[in-house]
Amino acid sequence: MADHPADLINRDEETRRLSALLADGAPRMALMFGRRRVGKTHLLNRVWPADRVFYFTAAETTEAQNRSALLEELGRFRRESLTEADYPTWRTVFRLLLDTNTPEPLVIVLDEFQYLGDALADVRRVASELNAAWEQNRPTRPVVMVLSGSHIKTMEALRDGGALFGRFHYIARIRPFNYWYAGQMAPYPDLRDRVRSYAAYGGTPRYLSAINIAESLDDNIAHQLLSHQGEVRALLETALSQERGLSDVAKYQAILRAIGTGSTQFAELKSKAGMQETADNGVRQMLDKLQALDYVRADRNIGAKHTSPFRYRISDPAFAFYYAFTARYEAALARHSAQQIWQHHIRPEFNGYIGHVFERIAEQAYVRRTETLGLPVTSEWGRWEGHDRAKRSLEMDIVAPLLDGRVMTGGVKWNTTPVPAEWHYHHMEMIARLADAGVKWAHAAAQPDAPLLWVAAGGFSPEFEAAARKARREVHLWSLEELYG
C-alpha cells in the first residue's frame, strides 16, 4: 500500500464547512452523499476530534437489526446498558441519541443512512421519525447531526423533499478527485505517469491509495488492475453488485462493457450488450440509473437539438479502463501472467485510450485554473463530431461557449514531440467549414476575439505558437507543466 499522508486531499471546503457547523454553538444538521469509495468516511473521521464524535454505520440488513445495532453502539458510547424493549421504535432511539450528554460539543454521524430502511419509502419514514425527535428533543447545546450515504438517489430524495426538507444547514456531494488531486495521491515525478495513473485508476481515493509509487506504474497496473488477485480489480468487479436498486447486475455490466469497448451510440451499445430483445425504454432506464450513480455520462454536440441522440461514455477512468481492457482480456488474463498481457497487448493500446481521458483532463484543468489565471468563464464545455457540407467528417476536441457570448475552441493532443503548425491551420479550416455549413456557434468561433485553447502533452513547436498567436488575440498554450503547475 502507498504511504499517503493522513491529511485530507482536496477536501478543504468540506472540512471548513463541517467544522463551522460545530463552532456555530447551536444544533445543526448536515447531509453528505457520494458514490462508494470516494472518501466520505475518511473525511468524516478526520474533521473533528474522535472523542467528540458518535459514529454509526448502518448495514445492508433489516430495520430491526440496524436499530438494535445502533442502540448497542450508543450504549457503549454512553457507557450504559440499554435494553431494546425500552426503545422499540426509531423515534425512541433517536430521542435517546439526542439526549446524550457529553462534556464537549457532540457530533453524531449516521453513515450509510439509506440502509435504515428497506426501500425509499421506509427511509423516508425513518427520516420522519428523526425529524420528530429533532423537533421534540432538539438539544440546546452544540450538536451536529450528519446523515451520510452512498445511495445517491435515496440521499438526493432526502435533500429534495420529505420530513427533513429544509433542515440541512450544509449539503455536500462528495465526488472523485480531478486529475490534479489524483496526482497528489500518485506523485510520480514523471508528469506523464501522473496522467497515465489517472487514466487507469481515475479519481477515487480508495483505488489511488493502493498505488505503491516505489514500483513503476506499469507494475502497479499489472498487479492491481489486471491480475486476478488485484486489489483494485476486485473492487471494480464488485462495485455494481453493491449498488442498491440494480436488480439485474449482469445487464448493467453488459451495457458498461459495450460502452467501454467503443459503442457510444444507443443502438450500437444496445446491440453490443446483447439486449436486442429488451425494449428501448428498458435500456434507457438502465442508462439513466447508471448516470444517476455517476458510472455513465451522456453528451451531445454543442448546439445540438434536444432531440439529437446522446453519446454515452463511462464517467470514471478506472471503470473505463476495467471495461476497455481488464474485462476484454479476462480469458487471456486467466491463462497468462498479467505482466505479459499488459506489455504485449494492453500497453500498445493504452496511449490511444488516454487520448479521451486527456480531453477530460483539459476540461478539469481549465476549471481549476480559471480563477487564478483570470480565464473567461465557460457556460458549457463540449466537443463536436460530424460532417461539413461536403460530407467530410471532422472532429473538434474543445468547443466552449463563454458567458460573455464568445466561443472558445481548441484541441487536445497526447503527444510526445512538439506539435507542428499544421495542427493549428487544420483547426482554423474546420471552423470555417462548420461556419459555412451553418453551424451557429462556428460563426462566433470564427471571430477575431474568439479565444483558442491548445493542450499538448509534448508541447508546441515555435511555428505552431507563432501561427496561433498571429491568428487570435487570446491564445492559451498548455503543456503538462502548465497542467500540473
What does this structure look like?
The protein is α/β, with parallel strands linked by helices. It folds into three domains: about 10-175, Rossmann fold (3-Layer(aba) Sandwich), CATH 3.40.50; about 215-355, Winged helix-like DNA-binding domain superfamily/Winged helix DNA-binding domain (Arc Repressor Mutant, subunit A, Orthogonal Bundle), CATH 1.10.10.10; about 375-485, Trna Endonuclease, Chain: A, domain 1. Helices cover about 45% and strands about 15% of the residues. The protein has 21 helices and twelve strands. The strands form three sheets. A five-stranded parallel β-sheet has the order 2-3-4-1-5, with helices on both faces. Strands 8-9-10-11-12 form a five-stranded mixed β-sheet, sandwiched between helices. A two-stranded antiparallel ribbon has the order 6-7. Helix 20 links the parallel strand 11 (about 450-455) and strand 12. Helix 12 (about 250-260) packs across helix 13. The radius of gyration is 25 Å and the shape is globular.
CATH topology name of the largest domain, in short, is Rossmann fold
The helicity comes to 40-55%
Beta strand % = 5-15%
Q: CATH top level of the largest domain?
A: Alpha Beta
Number of beta-strand segments: 12
CATH architecture of the largest domain: 3-Layer(aba) Sandwich
Q: What does the overall shape look like? A: globular
How many structural domains are formed by the residues?
A: 3
The average pLDDT value, as a whole number, equals 93
What do we call the CATH homologous superfamily of the largest domain?
P-loop containing nucleotide triphosphate hydrolases
Radius of gyration: 25 Å
- Strands of the largest sheet, in order across it? 2-3-4-1-5
Count the DSSP helices: 21
Which spans of ≥5 residues are poorly predicted at pLDDT below 50? 1-6
Biggest sheet statistics? 5 strands, parallel
State the end-to-end distance.
Answer: 27 Å
Structural class: alpha/beta
